[in-house]
Structure formats: structure tokens, C-alpha cells
Specification:
With about 160 residues, this protein is of the alpha+beta class. The chain has 4 helices and 10 strands.
Length: about 160
């Protein structure tokens, strides 16, 4: 079983409700166990800044799926919640974005999958929730909390628990 970190994001619709359903789908469709879930965070948009703020979170799961099968499953879940990767604008609005951040200590560099995620250390909207659940996790030799300390967290706000 692999320990996997997944980032969730979205800014269209009731994103927090989508997250709850998507996490349930992730665990069910990967035969995975949810090990940790961060708080939800309101974050400024990345890339195309002329859009609504995003909600971001991270989860850690344990699964027996290999990295490629897991990525395929995450893309199926995104589509189930209205995401069409073929018709969207890069860094544009979306109902659900699921990014595979790390899969144990596996390193893969293929056109369809790069692990660990190549831009995770550039994005505070990923590292803030990730540091909440796995501050000491080493990814590509870097500790999550130390990587976060190198970035600005301006505009990132922890949202209250839904109850």
C-alpha cells in the first residue's frame, strides 16, 4: 500500500460540498483509506487572476493502485464532477481539480505523469494545506514545512469547519 498526497481545488459551484463527495469517491474508487484531510482554504487564483477565488485542500490516502491507475481514477472523478480537461482554459475556472502531489517516494517523469508534482513547491495554495497534514513529509528531499517557509502565503485564509 502506498501513501499518497492529493491536492484538491476548485472555484465553480459549491466547492466544499464537491470536496466531501469527491473525497468519498476517491476512497471508494481507489479502495483507499483516508489517512488525513486538511482544512479548506480560500486562495487567490493562480495564472488567470481574473476569476473567483479558489478553495483548496489536501488529503493523504493509502491505496494499492499504481500511480498511473490512480491518476486515471482521479481524472474520472474530476469528470464526474463536471470537469472537461479538453475544453478548459489552463489555470481557469473549474469545478474540481485533483492533483497527485506525491506517491510514496516514487519518481516518474513521463508525458502523462510526473511525480512528485513538478510545481508543488511553487504553490503556497498546495503547501499550506499540505503542511497542515504532513509538515515533516519529505518530497524529493524537501520537507513540506521548510518548502512552505520559502513562499508568501498572502491572501490564503483558512475557512471555518463546516461542522
Amino acid at each position: 500500500m502506498a501513501r499518497v498526497l492529493i491536492a484538491l481545488g476548485g472555484n465553480v459551484g459549491d466547492v466544499r460540498a464537491t470536496f466531501e463527495k469527491a473525497i468519498s469517491n476517491i476512497c471508494g474508487m481507489t479502495q483507499g483509506a483516508l489517512l488525513a484531510r486538511s482544512s479548506d482554504y480560500s486562495t487567490p487564483p493562480w495564472g488567470d487572476e481574473q476569476q473567483a477565488r479558489f478553495v483548496n485542500a489536501c488529503i493523504e490516502i493509502e491505496t494499492g493502485l499504481d500511480p498511473h491507475a490512480l491518476l486515471f481514477t482521479l481524472h474520472r472523478i474530476e469528470a464526474k464532477f463536471g470537469r472537461d480537461r479538453t475544453r478548459e482554459t489552463r489555470w481557469g475556472p473549474r469545478t474540481l481539480d485533483l492533483d497527485l502531489i506525491a506517491y510514496d517516494d516514487v519518481s516518474i517523469q513521463k508525458p502523462e505523469l510526473t511525480l512528485p508534482h513538478p510545481r508543488a513547491f511553487e504553490r503556497a495554495f498546495v503547501l499550506v494545506p499540505l503542511a497542515e497534514i504532513a509538515p515533516d513529509r519529505l518530497i524529493a528531499g524537501r520537507r513540506v514545512a521548510a518548502a512552505l517557509a520559502q513562499l508568501s502565503t498572502d491572501g490564503i485564509e483558512r475557512l471555518p469547519d463546516l461542522g
